[in-house]
Amino acid sequence: MNNKILKMGIISCIVMSSLGVAMPITCAAEPAEKLSTSEVVVTANRTQEEIKAIPQATEVITAQDIQDLGATTVQDALALAHDVTVRSGTVGSNVQIRGMSKNHILILVDGKRMAGEDTAKLTNSYALERLNVNDIERIEIVRGSSSALYGSDAIGGIINIITKVPSEFSTTIGTITGTKNTATYVYADLGKNGRWSSSVSARWDKVRERKEYQYSEQMGRGGKITVIDGINSNMYGMHRTYHTAAKYDFENANKNTLRFDVDYLKDDLKSAYADAYSKSPAGKTVTAKNKYSTFDNERIGFSVEYAGQTDRNDYSFRTYYDQLKKNTNTYNARPDFRGPPAIVNMLNKTYPKMTSDFSKYTTWVAEAKDTMYVNDAHTLTFGGEYRFTEYEGTRLKKTAGSTVGKHNFNSYAGYAEDLWQVNDDLLITPSLRFEHNSHFGNKTTPKLGLTYHINDKLRFKSNYGKGYKAPTVSEMYLDMTHPMGPAVVMNIVGNPNLKPEESTNFDVGFEYDDGKTFGKISYFKNKVNNLIATKRIESTKTTYVNIDKTQVNGVETEIGHHLSNRLSVKIHDSWLDATDAISGERLTGRAKNAISFQLVYDDHKNDGFSAVLWDTFISDFYDTDRNGKDRNFTYNTLNFSFNKKFKNGMSVFGGIDNILNKKDSDIYLDGRVWRVGVERKF
After folding, report:
1. Which CATH fold topology does 2-313+322-379+387-681 show?
2. Distance of CA 302 to the CA centre of its chain
3. Bridge partners for 624 per DSSP
4. What are the per-10-residue average pLDDT scores of the chain (682 residues)?
5. Would you say the C-alpha torsion 398, 400, 406, 408 has a positive or negative sign?
6. d(C-alpha 526, C-alpha 621), whole Å
7. What is the pTM of this model?
8. For the chain, what are the domain ranges?
């Protein structure tokens, strides 16, 4: 560990020296308190810029938006985001942007990467669930590839969750109940004490058990029939999050600040599986009885950041560490198997009475950045980054004599972007990133963006760039045999010969806003070579392989109108064509068309009322049902949320999703979901 610390320190010094700044230089996202209005974002260009000027399709969700939605989770907060879909599944949530899957979306917290699961199936599945929505100041969403600035994992886009920064003394407490959970939370801004300001927050979340009856029969080889008949349940139990932040303001001519952050998460969860047995001419064999799993997860993260300003430079340096530990135990109360020893041994291995898994994911980053205001025409942003990731666990290939495997990657990168204001109407943003990966060598990713103001109301935007995603530790070194459900045994091995995914991205669009009526239309195309997917290599074994080519094309449309100062109407439409470029077959888990109709009311009073009524229509959602058949699903959900504020600092909020109680277990549409909460700020 000491060697790792020393190595990171040396690299950090090299990065800072190369940038020519005496003090450490900028983090991936500027502190939230520097933002003056909701029209300014930091994620798209790694520096502050008006959202209207940024070439990339960018959206901001504020803390007020979250409260108005009655959102109790980050997933709820993203419900109205344009062309961002969040779907529940057997394992967490599936987040997509522009049809790109969850493992192609980079999720950041204050510009920082979080340690977590790294397979295509699980990447980002639980990332949003491990965040406290009450800590959020704003969410910035960038649609389209951002590899030129952020490197691997950002082919599809970025979700940057920016947390609250200590400012003035206040305390907020609240409680929530609903279909999915009950929760109690507190956020205490301790204000400024000398040069120090700090805040603490905590949330205790009791996830409710949701039971579901399952029955299925599947014919196998030799006349064998597998039957599943019983009750499944979600992961339920206690979910606890804690966060503390402290800032030290030097208050000198350069406005230098030093900030510390510490995060802690603890999960104690449980899930249950239906009973299962197999029937054959030889008789009946029970393979699962009262089967359940327990999950003990713990995450800790900390960071230190130094930032300062001069007349021409805005610079900072940050280093941070994040670690997630997972312990999973599965118990099966099936009866003992009988028969020949060879058959019994095979069955015991396939359907064990008890299994235990351990995983530890670690991320350690040192990064620096400087934004230099060269002149009225050019603002240059450049920086460097060193990143170390490690995965240690029982599901990896092991060395002789060890019960766990351990593998790690490291990379270093440098990037630069110029905000070139050619004239009052034209902004061009060329950017370039060079990255060296310890396993895959060098990679250069360019990008070019353009914004042209046709007039005060109408803007033209376009982007072209390259992206890439390196294979993860799991995809290369996994060696897992694990019972995952009532009758499913996952047997997956990694592929050390995988190649990085490479993408070419293009989009073009128009934006309009005259103060009353507003709208957007964009066309995008994303080609991905060497897409990493799974392939069956034996009857019960799969591995990871590269697919030659995939292509995702789409059109995003938004139109809205302010009917009055209080009432607005909006329509979002997303058309998508996602296919294997060679076979022409559609990619699963994606809808052909999604339309959202929204009616928004807000009286803009400190003690006022706000509400949203929206209907989402999904057409031709292509996915695999529980019997393994590919199907198209079409459905709609009607939803409502509200927030009522009072003069004494109290507010009451809530909502109902899927009011019409649509249900389809194949796509995890679980029917009506309600939530209500009360909050008081002192």
Report:
1. Maltoporin; Chain A (2.40.170)
2. 19
3. 630
4. 40 36 35 46 80 89 86 87 79 82 89 88 82 90 89 90 90 94 94 91 94 83 82 92 92 82 95 90 87 94 93 93 95 92 87 91 96 94 96 88 89 95 95 95 95 96 94 91 68 91 94 94 94 81 86 94 95 92 84 94 90 94 79 93 91 94 85 93 91
5. negative
6. 19
7. 0.88
8. 2-313+322-379+387-681
